[in-house]
Amino acid sequence: MELTLNVWRQKNAADPGRFLTYQATNLIPDMSFLEMLDVMNEQLIARGEEPIAFDSDCREGICGTCSLVINGIPHGGQKGTTACQLHLRHFKDGDTITIEPWRARAFPVVKDLVVDRDAFDRIIQSGGFVSVSTGGVPDANAIPVPKHDADRSMDAAQCIGCGACVAACKNASAMLFVAAKVSHLGLLPQGRVEKERRVANMVKAMDAEGFGNCTVTRSCEAVCPKEISLSFIARMNREYAIALLKG
Ligand code: SF4
Ligand code: FES
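Above: the input record for the complex with iron/sulfur cluster. Below: its predicted structure, written as tokens.
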């Protein structure tokens, strides 16, 4: 396969950036999208050009670092699929593909396709943890958890913190991410102890980082590689209202 790539190149946060066009050759349909970028970079290095900077770690849909907007859609638009799990078989030989970084004020571009997502870490630090003592593993297992709550909590816990929800939202809202974190802890008995403090602090941190508000366009849910449900935002709003009422 051969592909034409329009890639966002930006030296650093201060550089205005621009698209550059490259021909990627010697590709095979079974390559992942990131392997294609590896091959492209080998070709750039062989020509003495600067390789394209992009983030990746696990390359199996777990870590959430592969933050690429592919043809205008975060992670490329395959349902429940991260950019690292996307394969070239979903494209045609000769296609032109546009690759950009996440674009949101709270995620400044570090270089090329790499963005700084420390804002998410600071939101987690503000309340995305359980500080009650649950004892050892046998003690924690002795706490009964209704099956429905355990399932809902696991659904929310699938969030990998990739930020695609922010990148897809016209308001750059982080509500789906925060709602997933608030819910996966707040649905379990161990996390209920400090749930009001958690939701209040996390929403405050989200606002302070410059993320926008939710206007229910559902774009976050559509691109989320872990298919986190918008219903978690409604759940978080209820939890937040209760926290405000309780002061
Ligand atoms: S809610 Fe989905 S899109 Fe948003 S950070 Fe979590 S996994 Fe990524
Ligand atoms: S590289 Fe880890 S989820 Fe894509």
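Notes for the reader.
The CA atoms of residues 157 and 184 lie 5 Å apart.
Residues 231-245 form the longest helix (15 residues).
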